[in-house]
Amino acid sequence: MSFLSRAASDSRAQFATTAIVSGAVVAGAILGYQQLQRRENIRQLKDSIPFVDEGDALRKLTSFGGASKVDQEDLRNEALARRAQAGEYDDELILEQLARNRVFLTPDGLDKLRNAFVVVVGCGGVGSHATSALARSGVSKIRLIDFDQVTLSSLNRHAVATLADVGIAKVQCLHRRLIAITPWVKFDLRLEKYWDEAADRLLEPWKEGGQKPDFVIDAIDNIDTKVSLLKYCHDHNLNVISSMGAGCKSDPTRILVGDIGMSTDDGLSRATRRRLKLLGITKGIPTVFSTEKTGEGKAELLPLLEEEFQKGSVGDLGVLPDFRVRILPVLGTMPAVFGYTVANHVILSITGYPLDYVPAKGRDKMYDGILAALQGSEEKLLRHMTNQDASVAVGLKIPITVGDVAFLVEEIFKGRSSITGLATRLHLVRWKKPTSSTLIKIGEGSGEQKSSNLTLGELVCMTKEEATRHEKEILRGEKTAQDLYDTATMEKVEAALKDAASYVKCR
């Protein structure tokens, strides 16, 4: 008798089968209900974010249970702001409030600032402090772009949010608090996430007078959105400054302003540069970044807890699909330092005040020295390959720039020798001995141009002493890399060279 036949005639088997089937049905129903409930929670969460054109909706309570209520002080501030923006606020009072800025920037500089239009994309820790500084300094037209709402965890780093603001849109929170400080400032609130298809609309000229943005501030912590915004500004000749990661940082003395081509140990900064390089953008975008390195005992981005995965698809855990759901460790002071540094750059740039930043704490001088040493190395190699003909190297140029040196040293080799890991007296040197002449000649006589065929994918970072030995024994000697270095070093160097070569097309 088959198992099925026995099961059909055995009451205990029938009971067990019924229990199993019933359990499966119940389990399926529970899981189905949980899935539906999760989707409903997400829908309610997204529906709770009001649109700007709903007027008072921005001041209503949301499903977050925010404590925001319209009180008499809010009403007085809004009434004063309407009067101020209509021109009824005494200009002498405004100048008195901005007196210290006026003395510092000169009356002409302050006038430029008061006529400026700045767009802030991202109104969290960095963006809120930047916005607050701009409004307090005199910028009269500010567009705020952010889809998110104030949460309790926002209060450790947001510039103006209070408990009463928990649950309302960040753009509305900034507007609500700042009109009580600078009622003459006009705000344009855009309660949505920046995205490619909306770029023309979100970065459009000011509605009154058609003024283009004088500056765009990138305070976004999502890599896709950040790269999209920076590329749009680059392609449309909009002045932009980008704030890199403030998360996991603790040393304010290591925060610098520099071009996007400069490198740091910050993951967001590194990922942004690499993505932009693939889009053909290697320079021309100022950034605020930190040179602070990670180390034992310092905060790190932790993996998402296993129980969060058990709740369902990770994408369902965020307010929007594909948006970061992990909690990034952030010391509340650091976003403020980043935000004020960003605002400071915008203020100085708009007013024409001299910008004289310390170049990466002396790193530019180091890059110049590395480039000069590389030039000398190529000249020596060429003379060696032509039996010490000194004239052949006269006027030789190498197709490597200071920016290339910075990229290789910091981005590819992380500021250390690829041989020993030392970080002192760094040099760049060819890894392999050329099999043919390195000289490229164009023209003749006085119009002759000489250059080396050197590429980024051939250079390795070493200390001065290591480079000297490498040149003597390999480039101008008879040994190979296998004769001098172990397998682990060879593999590490080859991986770095491959990484560098992939960016040559984007220079």
From TrEMBL:
GO terms for cellular component: mitochondrial outer membrane. It is found in: Mitochondrion outer membrane. GO terms for molecular function: ATP binding; tRNA threonylcarbamoyladenosine dehydratase; ubiquitin-like modifier activating enzyme activity. The chain crosses the membrane at residues 12-33. The keyword Magnesium does not apply. Pfam families: ThiF. Coiled coil: none annotated. Keywords: ATP-binding, Ligase, Membrane, Mitochondrion, Mitochondrion outer membrane, Nucleotide-binding, Transmembrane, Transmembrane helix. Its main location: mitochondrion. It is a multi-pass membrane protein. GO terms for biological process: cyclic threonylcarbamoyladenosine biosynthetic process. Residues 100-356 form the THIF-type NAD/FAD binding fold domain. InterPro entries: ThiF/MoeB/HesA, ThiF_NAD_FAD-bd, Ubiquitin-activating_enz. Catalyzes the ATP-dependent dehydration of threonylcarbamoyladenosine at position 37 (t(6)A37) to form cyclic t(6)A37 (ct(6)A37) in tRNAs that read codons beginning with adenine. Belongs to the HesA/MoeB/ThiF family. This is THIF-type NAD/FAD binding fold domain-containing protein.
